[in-house]
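Dear colleague,

Following up on Tuesday's group meeting, I ran the structure prediction for the two-component complex that the binding team flagged. I've pasted the input sequences exactly as they went in, so you can double-check that nothing got truncated or mislabelled along the way. The structure tokens for the whole assembly follow below. Feel free to forward this to whoever is handling the docking comparison.

Inputs:
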Amino acid sequence: MISFILMVNKQGQTRLSSYYEWLDMQERVALESEIIRKCMSRSELQCSFVQYRGYKVIYRRYASLFFIVGTKTDVDLRKSIASSSAKKKPSSSSSDSGGGGGGGKQGRYDKAYVENHENELGLLEFIHCLVETMDRWAGSICELDIMYQLEQVHFLLDEMVMNGYVVETNKSNILRPIDLMDRESKKNEGMFR
Amino acid sequence: MVFEKTLTDLVTGIRSHKRDTALYISQNIAEIKNELQSPDFFTKSNALQKLTFLQMMGYSIQWAAFAAVEVMSSPRFALKRIGYLAACQGLDQPEKSPVVLLTTNLLKKELRGATVGGSGENIYHAGLAINCISNIVTEDLGMELLPDLLHLLKHPSPYVRKKALLCLYKVFLKYPRGLRLSFDAIKVCLEDSHPSVVSCAVNVITELSDKNPKNYLPLAPAFFKLLTSSANNWMLIKVVKLLGSLVPEEPRLARKLLEPLCNIVKSTHAKSLLYEAVFAITLCLQYVKKANGTQPSNTPEVVELCVTTLRGFISDPDQNLKYLGLVGFGSLLQSQPKVLHSQSDCRGLILKCLSDDDITIRSRALSLLQFVTTQRNLVDLINQLLGHVEFASGEYRCDLVQEIIRMCSSNKYELVMDFAWYVDVLLILAGVRGVKSQGEAISKQWMDVAWRVLPVRSYAVRRSLEVLVCRGLLGMEGSDAGSSGGTTEEKDAIDRYIIPEVLPAAAWIVGEYSHLIPESLESNEGLDPRYDATSKGPYHALIQSLTSPTDAAGVNPLPMTTQAVFVQNAMKVFAAACERSHRAQANNGINLGKKFECTDDELHACVGTLMRNLVIFYESPDVEVKERAFTAHQLLLSMDLPRDLTLATTASVASKCRLASPMLTYLLVPEPMKPISAKAQKRKLAEGPPSPISIQEWEKDVDWGAFWFLNEETQWFDREGNAKGSVESICFTKQHPTTAMSNLSLGADTVEGSMGSQLRGVLREMATLDKACGGVDTKSAFSNLPSSNSQRGGDPFYLSSPAAHSARLLDSGVEGVAKDGADSAATRFGSIKLDSGGESDECYSGEKAKKKKKKRSTKAHHIVGSDDEDDNIINMSRPKRGYVSKELKNLALVDLTTPLGEDDVMPRNEHYVVPERQTEPKGSTGKTKKKKSSNKNKSSKSKNTIAVGDLLAFDSPLINLAGTRANDFNVESSNNNPINSAFDDLLGLEMPHPPVNASTNTAMVPIAEVVGVESNVMKSKEKKPKKDKHKAFTPSLARSRRAHAGVGTSGANSSRGRMQMQWMLHHDNDDDDDAHSSTLPSSNKLLSLVSSGANDGDEGKALVRNEIAALESAFLHMSNNHHITNNCVAANTMNDDDNRQSPSAASSTSSSSSSSLLSRFQPLLGLYEVKSVITNNPKENPVGGKWTRSNGVAQKLFTTRATFQHLLPFNATGQSSLQLSSSSSPSTSPLHLSSPVAEAVNVVSLDALNGKFRITIVLRGDATPLTLEERSERNTKNQSTTILSSTTVPILLSNLAVRAYFDPPRIYFGKRRQRRRYNRNRQGGAEASGDGGVHGSSSEYSYFPLQLGPASSVILDTTYYDNAVRIGLGGTSGTRFVFASTDKVEANEYEALLKLPYVKKYKCVGMLGLILAASLNVAFPDKLLLGRLCTLRFMGNAAAITARWSMWRLVLGTIFRLAGGALAAMSGMAMLAIIFSSGGIERGSNNMNSRRQNRGEGEMVAGKNDA
């Protein structure tokens, strides 16, 4: 599942953050700043995947804005399952080599399994889809659009991702409720102010 | 309100305050805090919006959580959205957050709102709520909302379905039990017609199957179908992933999947799906092996396909693909490790990745390296990697080192051809800074190579020696600066850094193979040992290095474990030196042709260094180091060496050393370890331990008699063996009896005789005599080398000395007991070795277990079975294995494969059902009544008690139990309290009565109910001081307050309270003193809210709305429970006649209509005052229509005096049947499908001029229940009509919904009766109506009744009722009405009014027409023919004639005309008004579906409803 989505500008200022698992405020701030630093220190030539503190971070840069998606899986759980299954059938090969060969193998297996938990390319596509959707919504989206209409962007995001899963990728499906809401709330706007 | 900063202002502000952003923000937060206090929702939501922005910037906004919840309850979507967003983003951890509980009802309401179907806006409301739930769900919340969420899975809109579905996963995380209950519903969603829903279902199941895949195996066919048929890439990715996770559970699936996956690989254009499919194939490949060990025939093909695809990825210029390609290969190689060997181009690509810019890619490629390496390219590769190591940094450097070691060591060093090279590599690695974490691995490898690979051993010794000596020089530099005449090379070597973790390994190698020292030096001619001038030779240099005082107590001392190893090995080296010298002498000084002989000088220097330095070591704070140093020192002394070496000649010292050499060798130099094949080792293990020591022997309990001293009371133990102090304070530490050179035990032999078994003796001895022999006992040199004991214990490659050898030693050991002195010491040491003889493994583990046992037993002092021990170990080690968060674990534990049991039911909120009580005989009823009236105060007091008791039971989460508990309480209290027991009769007596005349003062209590109850207690206390009783109640009150606090959220409470209240209110009728003492807590709160005027502002409205919602949801559950309804209804009817004081009760109603309907609506009857109206649209004015519209004419002239809506038994006024039959409105009568169940009378009374004028508008109608079809039709229509309105929740009609057909409104113009005549004012000029007077009974007024306007009908629902309050719901507008039952005098005015004969519309119009004609005549005397003929014209003429001659003529004429014109105009207008008037009804037609009607629906009929 997606653990968080961040939009960060080149100066490292968060422009939007949405967390799908609960994190302490200090943790959030620390996490954001470190991930942002990591992402920004990477060049265009490097791949878009970073691993950090158990998160697999997928990011993409559009103009001056970084879109960062963090995913995580329940590593601990997997490990315990893997080790319990390993316990069931003691492998004959792990005990006879003097080095860390056997243990290493097991560790790598876990890693590979865990790492593929979310499809990286899929998430990159998702980011692109998000950007396109926002583009269509705000004309040509820019950082200021996001800042000043934070709430709408959140809503848009909520339409696309729910509790960490991609719900909808059809642009018009995403935008329909938003337009509807906007129209409706504007209609009522005049009454009290 | 316009002056607050908006979000835009804030953002702009922050941007313009770049320097002092923090200050600016803190100012703003202060402002926001103020704004949150505002009652205005807009201000609040604006503030929240700003907070959300600040939250994103890293400011905690948990303190605003309550405000967020408030805004969430706003009816306007735009505001609500802000509230929800803030809640999702900023709430504290749900479990900790106090406000999450508060949202329960709100969320529930939103969810229910979406259940109606259609695609109205409410689905977006529900969407918001669902989204919020997934963020804030807790276990309780999940339990509460699960049924509603499941219900939404069947919602017609896919929008809602998919959201609900995804939300379920989060709910399951917190509330795993729910999974079992609802999994069927999720499965259904897999077949949903809408692809996005299916995709979400797949998402959820994928995630779930991660926790426990085997639950989802049965779904595999369904997914397989999706896999082959679906075209949605997003979903396919998930499906593939899911199937991949199922494969390990069901290998057959793997074979089946290969083909479709390959098809996808071949056909898809989406790289992500392509990758996913390839990855899944690689997973499958690990499991495709058939039971007979063969691979399916298409495997090579598939593998080839994978390789091609992945190679494509790696060679792609896109870094992302490159990365994924490497990951994919990693997975593929798990099952096909050899695949790369035939793919040389692939290998090249991977190697290229190794020098990629991107570290992520590099480390990926690194992990693949081991599959790429072959014997031929290993050296090359490693050399490259060593180059990388230099430039790498941080984590990656460690990874590199680790990988190098792994590559070389894999598969028993199968790739390494030259071990000398490998030793060098290891040394290079040991010199790399920043890879400390790998130090252990390096030293392990080094030792491993040294002892396994014979040919390279001497080389290893030599390198170790170099390392140590160089280090030693480094250490001594301080003392001997300048004395070393080293070359630059030497200096380089000295400067070399060595990871400290490697030092013990070097020391061990040197010590263990010290006999190889000369050989190693010789065979590598080129390398001179670089020891300095102070050393006499290699041995001395080594010993100097190993016992360097700076290591022990220098600025930077070595770790204690290393020191211990050093001391031990220094001795070994010394022994080797002696032996060397000894052998040289044995050969009579003949030079063996070796270059490096041990001279006397060197021996002397060695002894000197040892004697000097060991003393320093045995000052060490570490026990291990101290003991070893001490033992070593004593050993030297026992060789008869003089304490002061300067006194002895070099030769004598050397000769003594030589003399002691055999013993030293025997003691210190172990039997060399020899590798044996794994097979041989296995055989050995299978044979079991050699007799006579059988496994059984080992398992036998130890004879604890040996521990006699444990029964003594000592400093640490009392007689029972319980530890007084810490057991650890006794030194049992670090005993490793079976290491090859271990030296246990003197005492083994002493105890031996009595024990019979030598091994057991050894064990005991270890325990008992440890202290005694501690000084002599030399501990294992290896105990701290990670690889030593454990390695040997567990490593099948090693056997220690052959059994025969052991046997010999055993004998000597036994004999040795008798001897003393140094010789005996030697044999003693040997005795253990023998035990460890043939079966090191078994011995080792067995002893270990026993030792543990012993340790434990010292504490508990009883025998513990070894089975327990095992369990214990497992238990202890389990938590270490990895922390699994509780919730995930729980979810993993859910087993979906077993069918649902009976106890697996959906959590339901049910309400406490008042248990049926047996009716007592009538006689006793009378008696108790009497008793009660005589004890008014008493009974009122006990009423309190019972109310409290009930509240207490509210706390109980188990609703079923609550019933019995309430009973218990009554019983209990009756036992304790005579007053209560008196009242208890009443309890048994009867069930709730219709509350018609219930004293409604209660409703007016302006403060919250708790205060009310409490103050009441105080009051009665004053009246009748029975202090002790009251005291007893006080704690209960405190608790009841708590219960009330939860009222807003917990619907269950209120409804149960309601039941309790019904009968209580009934009794209130009898003793009116304390009528307000006990009221239903929740409705009371509502009333107090309403009557305190709180409902004026937005905030107040929200409070009221929440309150209503709470009551309603409680009631909803309640009404689903037929027992309850029937119960109270039955009771109602039973007591109907007796208790009804109301005028309406006169006619018996039950006969006129179907009894079941009647009984359903019966409890609603009564006189009610409209207390509050909550509309969804602020512009609506459902009560009183135009009469009360705030911007209407009527309200400017009049003030509203009261509005009522009475519900009377059918035809209570005697007018309904008449009306029904005579009604001229075509729209009403045909629609009366079902018979009326009640009569509704709406009264709006307006006053003007301080009561001089009064208008009372009465709308009388008959209420007929809606049929089921009507209701559902209505529900659907509501759905569609509310699409764009801001209604939060569609209206769902209950079975209490009625359609009320109202007669045309009757308007009574009244004025205070001063002159006794009817004032015939026109109704059009309302201002001209009668005059009024003091507020008083209606009889003081004279009225002009007029029936105006059309007949009308409305749909009304009752969402809640009890004795004091009834909540109505407009059937189309969703308006909520709060009615309080009332006994005001005014409430009964309607009776008299209704009896007045009224003027029908046409009469009135006719009258006005006449007036109009007449006045027109006057106004235009010349123009109207009619005018000329009529009297009035004549009068006008007469007036004109009389005035003819004066000036007055003109004036009078004009006045007359004007007056006539005015009159004409007025009457004309009035006529028009009457003709077209709706009588205040705002709606033009009866068309239920029009939006207009929707808005005005309730009209004057304040929501009337109900039957």
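The longest helix of chain B spans residues 1447-1476.

Cheers,
M.
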